[in-house]
Sequence to fold (642 residues):
Amino acid sequence: MSNYITTPIYYVNGEAHIGHAYTTFIADAIARHSRLIGEETYFLTGTDEHGQKIEESAAKNSKPTQEFADEISATFKNLWDEFNISYDQFIRTTDEHHKRGVQKAFEVMYAKGDIYKGHYEGNYCVSCETFFPKTQLIDDEFCPDCGRSTSTVKEESYFFKLSEYEDRLLAYYEAHPDFILPKSRRNEVINFVKGGLHDLSVTRTSFTWGVKLPKSLNDDKHVMYVWLDALLNYITALGYGDDEAKMDLWPANIHFVGKDILRFHAIYWPAFLMSLDLPLPKHIGAHGWWTRDGEKMSKSKGNVIHPKDVAEAYGLDNLRYFMMREVPFGQDGDFSQRAFIDRINSDLSNDLGNLLNRIIGMSGKYSEYIIDSKDVEKYHSKELQQMKSVLDSLDKYLDEIQMHRYLEELWKLFSIGNRAIEEHAPWVKIKNGQKDQALATVALIANILAKASLRLHGVMPETTKKIATALGFEMSSRYYKELILDDELLNTFTIEKVPPLFPRVDEPLIAEAPKAMPKADKQESENQEQKNEDNLITIDKFFETSLKIGLVVEAQEVAKSKKLLKLQVDVGEDKPRQVVAGIKEFYSPDELVDTQVCVVANLKPAKLMGMLSEGMLLAAKDSDGLSLIRPEKPKKIGTDIK
Ligand code: ME8
Fold:
């Protein structure tokens, strides 16, 4: 079975930012995993270069459009190359073979009667490259998706009979419940289609930067609508309408997209494919939106994160891990250096890195860096059982692209390993002359690390290769088969000392303030610095604090303490947090349960009277007593307070 995986093709109107990197990382992780397990894999990415938006951007930069597109396209390609993205093809919609394929597809749809000529009257949002009927606009003028002003368009246009595909599309969603991932996004697509589909204008006459209509139509006033041109890249990359050599890779297994372009991929694209009598992709994986410290990233705000800066400062694999682990696939996520640093120090350095360091250290001390034991089953059947059940559970998360759950589960292997070391204390066994037992534990850990890194390879390719080198095996399909599919154990490991893979990070490594600052903002920033000296903080500083709405689900008095109450507060995470608060003199446990509070959610956990406290409640205290700060109206649990 082949596995054809794609990213969106990125518009060449600006450089890549962290959101683009995210889509590309996920697709790369899936592609690498797929290759490791021995599947025929084809991974496509590229750039989307036509349309009014690009034409206007080039004009603003006083460059010929093609030259402008060449330059920006190269910045994407160079970045993916620096990031070692394992794409098999980088397609550009200005590639001649792509244009030929698009013209061919247009001809086929036209010949079938799915495209007809008419007149378009309505509004167009250049930023979203989308037509909107008046009824959908905000205040009769503004784009319902991005809020920008739209322009009125009245021009001759060819239309695609999208309205005739409503029933077939609905039937398809019904029959393929996992076509749209995560499944929680399915309904929004279904409702959109049920709301009625208008025929889609698929050509424009008011500008020229697009693919021309096929010669057979003899109508050179028109160029193609950029979304028709762009979506077709997924098949022109395989040679559709040209040299069709790779078309046997079709249908794609998954198109990764951001939620902003789900509608185009889950409605228009399937309808185009139906018209072309081609099978539909198996999945559309729509991920959420990244913000920075709670704010939308935009050039005008100057808060765009450049993925290269972050990767250089923190490590590329660490960035990949953070982005895939931190945010449930499909949900919006926030990029904060604090959260990133926590993941590096706790998941990577503590859990994984330490385990590797310990095994290197022990193997050196006990057996001169050769781990050789056939006794793992004899002494560690419990751990092997636990390990197997974790490993067996992983595929279902991967199938649904729930990368954060996948990684969370995978990390249980390191807990099993760390626990086994504590329980079996190999250093004691060595002292007691039970070397075979000590080496069995060390071999268990080496096997845990080997198996875990085979399953982590897609997400952290370079790191896992280093782990394989340290343990003396290879990141290859052969080992994947033996250690994962056939569930074998390696008996012998020749250990190579490697420097610690995840040095701890104490402070943010890149400037919190926007990097490149527009001139006009410079004066303001200098003023800001002046203000800092007066004890004022910048907004960035303020956003370092994560404040959330929480619900008190349990409250207890702390015996022997006059002041403390022990609370369990739900802040929208997997489990409630324990918060120990000095409010006993002012509130009884009963009056707190089921009420909402404001929680400082990113404080370092602290111990109060031996109890862990994982947050702080906001309160105001004066001579009249203490009052908790609460939302004026109940809010969804976990909502960010800004
Ligand atoms: O839409 N958070 O291109 P595009 C997460 N050319 N992901 C983000 C993001 C953010 N803040 N910003 C961008 C286009 N993305 C079309 C696609 S496909 C046939 C044509 C990611 O340059 C996300 O995947 O605007 C989004 O879908 C993609 O970049 C859009 O990039």
Q: What stands out?
A: Residues 545-628 form a domain with the OB fold (Dihydrolipoamide Acetyltransferase, E2P) fold (CATH 2.40.50.140). Residues 8-11, 19-20, 22-23, 48, 230-231, 233, 257-258, 260-261, 289-290, 297 surround ME8 (CB under 6 Å). Residues 266 and 284 are 7 Å apart (CA to CA). Residues 337-367 form the longest helix (31 residues).
